[in-house]
Amino acid sequence: MRSLPLADPGTPDTRSAIRYLWWLASRQSRTIGLGMFFGITWMLVGALIPMVIGKAIDAGITTKDTSALARWAGAFLLLGLVQAGSGIMRHRNAVFNWMSANFRTVQAVVRHANRLGATLPKRMATGEVVAIGAADTSHIGNALDITARGSAAIVSLVTVTVILLTASVKLGLVVLLGVPVQMAVVSLLIKPLHRRQQAYRDQQGALTGRAVDIVAGLRVLRGIGGEQVFAERYRTQSQQLREAGVRAARIDSLLESIQVLMPGLFLALVTWLGARLAVAGEIRPGELASFYGYAAFLVMPMRTLAEMLEKMTRGHVSAGRVLQVLRLEPEITAPASPLPLPEHGTLVDVKSGLSLRPGVLTVLAADRPEDAIEIADRLGRYAEGEVTLGGVPLAAATRDDVRARILVADNNARLFSGPLREELDPTGTAGDEQIMSALRTASAEEVIDALPDGLGAFVAERGREFSGGQQQRLRLARALLADPPILIMVEPTSAVDAHTEARIARRIGPARQGRTTLLAGTSPLLLDQADHVAFVEDGKVVAEGTHRDLLATEPRYRAVVTRSVDA
């Protein structure tokens, strides 16, 4: 992706969007060239058919020359076959160009989103990214699709103009002046259409983001009685989007009507002038038929040019949106000369003073939950911080090396759609016994037992068929199956009942024996099973020891864990 035409971060400008479209075109120049060649052949043949008909009338029908009529009829048949064949190839290459530009853009966005990692949701709303995949990629594909017919329209207009100028200067001048007039009228609508489409696209992304937020938090909204409030807000914003769409549609409908009206008037004018010339004896009957055919034919290239301007405008707006994603830079960059991380060692967060000893089950109890999340993000290198593993800074290692040794699992993790076995074991390396062992550790056996197909059951999007506690236990089982050297879990039992939490707390230690594990939470059930407890206040480790020792000696810890105020 180094060759992507990305400018400085900020609002995409016209040149950047055009450069992006040009970059896409250069990646598929062969099929675009073939599409234009077959498109020009297809439409140019259509432009020659009226001339063949006129010659057949003048040389064959008027003079009653059967052989001449047969020759021109054969020429007409040949042109028809060439037009059919070139039309098929033109359409094939145009569809390929549309799909290629569409999916190249999808690949570029997805690849860059993977590189951005945790930076993307911080910088751009989920709805905006969804809208890019739902609409913008298709508009970019349309901008390259129209090149086949757009180039053909230009060539055919030039060809017909030359033919008409040769036969009649008046009719040639009408065509020569009529096309620019239509293009000038259409161009007057392009700028307001561009502006209104941009406003509509902005509101569409915002509304999609709100819809994503509502769906994700629907259970919470129902629990606090806020469902109706958010529904009203969504309805209001939806009406604003509808109004923006209507404003854009007014210009669009006017553009569509002009695409019909202007060629229709042009057709009537050329036909009227041709009839007058035929009555005056300046042209023959066959030439009159040809002129009418040219006028009827010109409706298609003139409409195609207007369509090309419209699709290029939409593609330009969409390319600007795509560039907003591609211009984002990850907060954490790879080092120029990476160092390898050791297989084992103490993981140290210098800012908080937390040290995770190898093979020890540590529980981090913080007076503020956000402090525990920040520490977990630094330990997993999702945020910048001075963190070392065995004395080697994580900042000096590659992201892949860090991810291979440290796994951070929090409650924002998703359950994706697909078979449950693949959801729990994405790599496909674990056997049934290993999967069931992880499920037992997570106390999720009854979740599997309740499914008719067991591990083969299909998981819906976000695992919506499971309760919050069931989802959390399945995510815990997935993290345990990954079996990383260092596993960091934030509030892994916050959504389960006390009996289930007690079982999980007893089983995690033996399941992770010999490997480093950090649990962030203040549940006494988890803390009592820990080998080591670190108490964090204001982002710093202020006390360490066992759960029972800290209860006896540290009143601040006791206040946080027991929810009391005796401190």
TrEMBL record:
Signal peptide: none
Alphabetic keyword roster: ATP-binding, Membrane, Nucleotide-binding, Transmembrane, Transmembrane helix
ABC transmembrane type-1 domain location: 34-314
Pfam families per the UniProt record, alphabetical: ABC_membrane, ABC_tran
Membrane topology: Multi-pass membrane protein
MF terms (GO), sorted A to Z: ATP binding
Transmembrane segments: 34-57, 69-89, 146-165
Protein's UniProt name: ABC transporter ATP-binding protein
Organism for this UniProt entry: Catellatospora aurea
